[in-house]
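TA notes, week 10

Several of you asked for a full example with nothing omitted. So below is the full record: structure tokens for the whole chain, then the designed sequence directly under it. When grading your own attempts, check the secondary structure regions first.
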């Protein structure tokens, strides 16, 4: 049977990692809590105010280039980050929280809480910027954390050791960028995100549209950033450890 290592517990700030069935790093719990709290707070607002908030903080290329209220409005500078906390419905939120529990846990254990948050927020911003570049002046605003979760997921895939031989270090080396493991999952991930669509916000309301930009930009960022973040992860050379 192949060895499957996910960097469990070796990341900075998470010590030795025990074998509890539920061992989710605090940073992952905190982010999921923030996403849920933001959604609950929005839906508890009066319907009209909730919709105004959804449209105002969605990442809309047209609004970013020509802010309706000028460059000093919150939406003109906060939407590249705040759109990550907006969800049109609970089903989108639940799926993203599940993905964070699965892949975010692996990423946080490997790269630490700070590294995990860097992946999430920078990946989300990368997705928004690629959408801006490829949908210039579009009135359709994106919401949801697709870009951030893509970055976290692909970084976690690189940190997952799949080999028939034990690793030489602990945590194991990252999977190479051009490895079958990384490339196949990246293609699958981007394709699935495109086929199943994303929620966009239009003046007429929320609709589902096909988008590849957030998933693609986030995935590429996660693949590349994993190599940078891994330089700060202490490693043990198992060949130098005396045997029993």
């Amino acid at each position: 049977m192949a060895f499957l290592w996910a960097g469990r517990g070796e990341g900075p700030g998470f010590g030795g990692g025990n074998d509890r069935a539920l061992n989710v790093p605090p940073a992952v719990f905190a982010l999921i809590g923030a996403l849920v709290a933001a959604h609950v707070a929005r839906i508890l607002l009066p319907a009209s105010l909730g919709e105004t908030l959804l449209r105002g903080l969605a990442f809309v290329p047209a609004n970013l280039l020509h802010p309706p209220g000028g460059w000093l409005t919150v939406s003109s500078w906060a939407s590249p980050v705040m759109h990550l906390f907006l969800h049109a419905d609970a089903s989108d939120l639940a799926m993203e929280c599940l993905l964070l529990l699965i892949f975010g846990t692996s990423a946080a254990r490997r790269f630490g809480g700070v590294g995990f948050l860097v992946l999430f927020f920078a990946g989300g911003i990368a997705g928004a910027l690629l959408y801006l570049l490829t949908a210039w002046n579009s009135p359709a605003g994106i919401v949801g954390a697709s870009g951030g979760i893509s970055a976290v997921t692909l970084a976690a895939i690189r940190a997952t050791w799949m080999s028939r031989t034990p690793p030489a270090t602990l945590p194991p080396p990252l999977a190479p960028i051009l490895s079958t493991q990384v490339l196949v999952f990246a293609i699958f991930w981007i394709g699935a995100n495109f086929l199943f669509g994303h929620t966009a916000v239009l003046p007429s309301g929320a609709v589902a549209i096909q988008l590849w930009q957030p998933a693609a930009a986030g995935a590429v960022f996660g693949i590349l950033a994993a190599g940078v973040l891994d330089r700060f992860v202490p490693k043990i050379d198992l060949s130098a450890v005396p045997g029993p």
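Strands lie at 3-5, 141-142, 161-163, 169-170, 198-202, 205-209, 236-237. Use that as a sanity check on your answer.
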